[in-house]
Amino acid sequence: MENPFNVEKPVRPTFLTVLCILTFIGSGWGLINNLFQLAMFTPERLVAQIQQITTMAGTETQPSWVSSMLSSSLEVLQTTIMHGKAIYSLAALCAVISLIGAFMMYKLKEWFLFIRDRADRPVVYSADLFRLE
Description:
The chain has helices at 14-40, 43-57, 64-106, 111-119, 121-129. By secondary structure, the chain is mainly α. The longest helix is centred in the middle third of the chain and has 43 residues, at 64-106. It is elongated.
């Protein structure tokens, strides 16, 4: 006779295990990278990069698409100088949320899939928040 109070533990699918492992690797690397960038962020280093890009953009032999790419790189660096700490802090926070969501997914807490999925979006859209007009 079976025990009616015996509840079977849910089995984690293989794809979910692979997804969790890849999320641990990606989010962990993102967290380490953003914390390193936050610790090493200095506007002087970015100003040196801006001067180097400006020197490269000054040559007349480059095609027009190269100069447009260099000018867009300058805009990104100028935005990073103004809001670097906020950008790296937000990205590190999103990586932590993604790690927590991956851990909860690994423990088969379904509602954390939604949180892990949404944790990566602010990093993508943060460039729009700090865009130069």
